[in-house]
Amino acid sequence: MHPFSYTRAAGTRQALDAGRAGGRYIAGGTTLVDLMRETVERPRTLVDISALPLREITVTRRGGLRIGALVRMSEAVAHRGVRALYPVISQALELSASAQLRNMATIGGNIMQRTRCAYFRDVSAACNKREPGSGCAALHGVNRTHAILGTSDACVATHPSDVAVAFTALEATVHLLGPDGERTVPFTDFLLRPGNTPDREHALRKGELIAAVELPALPRPLKSGYLKVRDRQSYEFALTSAAVALHISGGVIREARVAAGGVGTVPWKLPAVERQLIGQRPSHALWTRAAQRAADGARPLQHNRFKVELLKRTVERQLRVVGGGK
Ligand code: SF4
């Protein structure tokens, strides 16, 4: 591990000043400390923001939920409002990591976690994300777990967060705090596809931090859920996943929010699937037809062609679980 200094911010202003001066924010530390041990990350200054007042879950005026960035994953899972209104969120969190990690890791840190690409974590391998311009060892290496959507010639790594897939499906908003005040960014614009600059992963400006994620008020009743497909049943990242939320009224699907994980360089919204669903009556034939659009635009690699079919089946199954029908 490289030498670094550590500051504990007592308040928001102190944190933002330290962030503007180049400090790296840390809260639960469940990703960053690992990466520092492996020398993948080498921050010179850590700014501990754990004491900031960003640990509440509140109902918004519009009837949505605002989840503070420092809310622990386990706290969000246990929150009655999250469980009742957005089961897709609590399910995605419960299927993430171990109980110990969920007790430490925060919602903000979960969104900001870095890829599980093995080459990214091996400092002897070429990796444009870790070292811009060095190449991408995964392109012609072992790429079974890598992305099939949103890739570029510079990087094909997946984003590892489960709850970010649920936030993408629900069309959440990210609230950011920075030296110039507060601003909001649609969640679907917050995480960046790699393009030619895979080292740029998010829309945060220098010194900014995540204050909260806001879930929109959606028409009720809203049924939702998260399905994660992986090589083993616990403590594993997704090969594919599907977050689905449906508002069905009068026997017709009025709202459909669908996103996929484990397949994209960012959590992958599926508008073509959603369009197939809206205005239709739930049925198994509809789920099958809609899920055929889940892999539109996919560019599989040598070892992950199986993800194309697996993604369609994952989406179809979760549509059936959430939407029912015959
Ligand atoms: Fe690095 Fe991305 Fe290539 Fe993995 S896929 S080696 S993270 S550039």
TrEMBL record:
A GO MF term: oxidoreductase activity
Domain of life here? Bacteria
Describe the location of the FAD-binding PCMH-type domain by residue ranges. Answer: 1-220
Name one matching Pfam family: CO_deh_flav_C
Name the UniProt record assigns to this protein:
FAD-binding molybdopterin dehydrogenase
Please provide the record's keywords in A-Z order.
Answer: Oxidoreductase
